[in-house]
Write a structure and sequence with these properties.
- There is one protein chain.
- The chain is an alpha+beta fold.
- It has 2 domains: 142 residues, Structural Genomics Hypothetical 15.5 Kd Protein In mrcA-pckA Intergenic Region, Chain A (Roll), CATH 3.10.290; 206 residues, Four Helix Bundle (Hemerythrin (Met), subunit A) (Up-down Bundle), CATH 1.20.120.
- Helices cover 44% and strands 12% of the residues.
- Strands 5-4-3-6-7-1-2-8 form an 8-stranded mixed sheet, with helices on one face.
- Strand 3 and strand 4 form a beta hairpin.
- Helix 7 crosses helix 9.
- The two termini are 45 Å apart.
């Protein structure tokens, strides 16, 4: 695999703010977004989009968040915009403050086995604070910070801190996060398939089990089922929609209490990385898909069945995240047939017609081996709906009516 060395420059800032970053040439755009948020120092609290040199736009496609001509970034990698050294594109963050980042592909090369595929090589300039009014607002903040007589000086100090250094940047903070995610395994964040994605599961498990999480947070097994459903979902589900369900499967709205920005960034980085790996599995090699429980060993059949139930519950949460899709699928004869195994395994459907308890228990024991095929059949069933959705988003002829 080849690796890109890119120069990311926040345009029109003074002093300059830039980062030189290495990443895989096939890094998906959601992963690139996460990397840019982390290495620049943003809080990931606003919308974003990528703009290629041919003016094609890529973003997180969901109703109400972006224009209809924005392409679904989940379906593309950075190589869709950058192919040869010298190619450029834009990354725009926060459509109010409009922070424009120019991404320049400087070189394409191989790396040694000792090197991590994602790395910040160098950089300069501190990241501006969120919601400060864009370039003009940031410039005004710096002027007020320097001038103690300025009537806005105290506000600038409160926002930036007395010792804020606009020229300072240390890549070690970002690289320490990357190193911890890889945990000495240079394949961890290369999102080629779900097997590689699994290598971040230990970090995700620890993150979801951390002290600040609600009791109703998802388990890793549920998360794998949840992400599997979102990956094949006929409509794009944004992170703003699915993240609250990760924190609280009950839907009551409980949220985690993070001890630090670093903990939040590391945890979200792991979640987005694994989500990306699951999406790529269904995009690139759906026939090789297996639920997480198939890759684990269990001490007993009962323990395995509990894990399968947990996985199926997460999958059903992903299916039901959109009421319209859920109702349309459930009411369709074929869709209902495809959902029934997940509903039975998850415990959502204990009353199955005339099936007796012993027979239902036997069915539950047999279904886990068939769920992977059921997922792929559901993906195929939903494909026409996906095309309808994409046509609506692009304003194509199928969107009429």
């Amino acid at each position: 695999m080849a690796y890109y060395e890119i120069l990311v420059s926040l345009l029109e800032t003074e002093p300059p703010v830039w980062r030189r970053v290495r990443l895989p040439e096939d890094a998906s755009l959601p992963l690139v977004h996460s990397i840019l948020q982390m290495v620049m120092g943003w809080d990931n609290g606003h919308m974003h989009e990528f703009i290629a040199s041919d003016r094609k736009r890529y973003g997180a496609v969901d109703d109400g968040s972006v224009d209809e001509d924005v392409l679904d970034e989940r379906q593309y990698s950075i190589s869709a915009m950058l192919g040869e050294p010298g190619d450029r594109c834009l990354y725009v963050y926060d459509f109010g403050d409009d922070w424009e980042h120019e991404i320049l592909l400087e070189s394409v090369s191989e790396i040694s086995p000792e090197e991590l595929p994602i790395w910040c090589l160098e950089g300069e300039g501190a990241c501006p604070p969120e919601d400060c009014g864009g370039i003009p607002g940031y410039a005004g903040l710096l002027d007020s910070l320097r001038d103690r007589a300025d009537p806005e000086h105290e506000d600038a100090v409160e926002l930036l801190g007395e010792d804020f250094d606009a020229e300072a940047f240390d890549p070690a903070f970002f690289n320490d996060q990357i190193r911890s995610m890889f945990a000495n395994n240079a394949e961890k964040l290369v999102p080629e398939d779900v097997t590689e994605g699994m290598s971040v599961l230990t970090g995700i498990r620890d993150f979801l089990a951390s002290e600040g999480m609600p009791e109703s947070v998802m388990s890793v097994m549920s998360l794998d089922g949840f992400f599997s459903a979102l990956a094949i979902h006929p409509e794009t589900v944004s992170a703003a929609e699915w993240l609250p369900m990760v924190w609280d499967v009950s839907g009551a709205g409980s949220e985690p209490e993070f001890f630090s920005k670093k903990e939040l960034e590391e945890g979200l980085g792991l979640l987005f990385t694994y989500y990306n790996s699951v999406v790529r599995q269904f995009t690139d090699e759906p026939e090789a898909f297996e639920p997480l429980y198939e890759d684990l060993e269990f001490e007993s059949g009962e323990e395995r069945l509990m894990a399968v139930q947990d996985w199926a519950s997460g999958f059903m949460l992903g299916v039901m995240i959109d009421d319209g899709v859920w109702e349309r699928t459930f009411r369709d004869q074929e869709g209902n047939r495809l959902l029934t195994p997940f509903a039975i395994i998850s415990g959502m459907l204990d009353d199955v017609g005339d099936i007796e308890g012993e027979q239902l228990a036997e069915i539950k024991n047999e279904l886990p081996d068939e769920l992977a095929l059921c997922v792929l059949e559901l993906q195929e069933f939903w494909e026409p709906w996906r095309q309808e959705y994409l046509a609506r988003r692009s304003g194509g002829p199928e969107s009429a009516g």
